[in-house]
Design a protein that fits this description.
By secondary structure, the protein is an alpha/beta fold. The chain has two domains: 2-114 and 277-307, Alpha-Beta Complex (Quinone Oxidoreductase, Chain A, domain 1); 118-252, Rossmann fold, CATH 3.40.50.720. The chain has eight helices and 15 strands. The protein has helices at 40-49, 109-112, 115-128, 145-156, 171-177, 202-210, 259-271, 288-296, and strands at 2-6, 14-18, 28-37, 59-66, 79-83, 92-96, 100-102, 136-140, 160-164, 181-183, 193-198, 212-220, 246-249, 279-284, 303-307. Strands 3, 4, 5, 6, 7, 14 and 15 form a seven-stranded mixed beta sheet that branches. Strands 10-9-8-11-12-13 form a six-stranded parallel beta sheet, sandwiched between helices. A two-stranded antiparallel sheet has the order 1-2. Strand 8, helix 4 and strand 9 form a beta-alpha-beta unit. Helix 3 crosses helix 4 and helix 3 packs across helix 7. The longest helix is centred in the middle third of the chain and has 14 residues, at 115-128. The radius of gyration is 20 Å and the shape is globular. The two termini are 14 Å apart. Pfam families: ADH_N (PF08240), ADH_zinc_N (PF00107). Residues 9-306 form the Enoyl reductase (ER) domain. It comes from Goodfellowiella coeruleoviolacea.
């Protein structure tokens, strides 16, 4: 099959070449991929560290061409959204049926491909905060793919959403997604927040934790700064007279029970126009190096989608 293969001798460490067809396990469906979406983590660390010949990729949407032998999952011909730790950047991928979901027949598979890591993470990390209706929620790094989904979902949950964006030109777009306030830095806040979804890490995480109210929770999702988190003495002392501020991390592939149901719900929301995938780059998969470079150089905000020929 054709695939985007890691090749450290090629420009961008990536080449459109050949890879062996996957052999599905009994609990896996074989999916013909129609669209893939890129995530910063897989692009940044996968392309640097994976051995030559590796087929990377977490997110893909396509059509089932071989149903799971154990009878689980959708039938042949069903359009699906899929997630796995690798293998998405290829014409075919074998996926556990617990890690995929049928999507509406009329859905734009390019838009659907943006869901698993970005929207799935945003949805499940938001749940870690508990009920957010009527509460202030800060989303750092809100202009990225997961950040934009987090803003929308937090607003849908009834939160007063505060979003960070270092470029003021992005403020209007974030407000259109549901943000009530947009700031450049958490230090600008004069009122504490109940919860934080942190996509950035480093000094931004430390600043966001400082504006968390007593009893609140910060969920760290991303580490895009590449800088350490350094807490000065006193940073972990009581806030508002309370000592129960929480800091936790979240990684979607460690939390997959029921993920098929969540992916199905997210797909229906996107297909119905109630959730915006915020695609800011879309093109053929033979333009993959161009897309990955734009992502790594911070020229791409939102989601990048690569489409495969029919």
């Amino acid at each position: 099959m054709r695939a985007l293969v890691v090749d450290h001798a090629a420009p961008g460490n990536l080449v459109l070449g050949e890879a062996a067809d996957p052999t599905p396990a009994p609990n896996q469906a074989l999916v013909r991929v129609r669209a893939i979406s890129l995530n910063y983590g897989e692009v940044k660390f996968g392309l640097e560290n994976a051995p030559d010949g590796t087929v990377l990729g977490w997110d893909a949407a396509g059509v089932v061409v071989q149903a799971a032998a154990d009878g689980s999952g959708p039938a042949v011909g069903t359009p699906v959204v899929t997630l796995a730790d690798g293998g998405a950047w290829a014409e075919l991928r074998a996926v556990d049926t617990t890690m995929l979901s049928a999507v509406p027949a009329t859905a734009d598979l390019g838009a659907i491909s943006t869901l698993p890591v970005a929207a799935g993470t945003a949805l499940r990390a938001l749940r870690r905060l508990g009920p957010v209706i009527g509460r202030r929620v800060l989303v750092t790094g809100a202009t990225g793919g997961a950040g934009r989904y987090a803003v929308q979902l937090a607003a849908r949950g009834g939160a007063h959403v505060v979003a960070t964006a270092t470029n003021p030109d992005h403020a209007d777009g974030l407000r259109a997604l549901g943000a009530h306030e947009v700031v450049r830095d958490p230090e600008e806040l004069t009122e504490r927040v109940f919860g934080v979804l942190d996509m950035v890490g480093g000094p931004v995480l430390v600043k966001a934790f400082a504006v968390l109210e007593g009893g609140g929770t910060l969920v760290n999702i991303g580490h895009t700064t590449g800088e350490p988190e350094v807490f000065e003495f006193g940073a972990l002392l009581a806030t508002d007279g309370r000592h129960d501020k929480s800091l936790t991390t979240y990684y979607l592939l460690d939390d997959t029970v029921g993920l098929d149901r969540d992916l199905g719900w997210l797909a229906r929301e996107v297909a119905g126009g109630r959730l915006d995938p915020q695609i800011t780059w879309r093109g053929s998969w033979d333009q993959a190096v161009e897309a990955t470079r734009a992502l790594l150089e911070r020229r791409l905000h939102g989601k990048a989608v690569l489409e495969l020929p029919a």
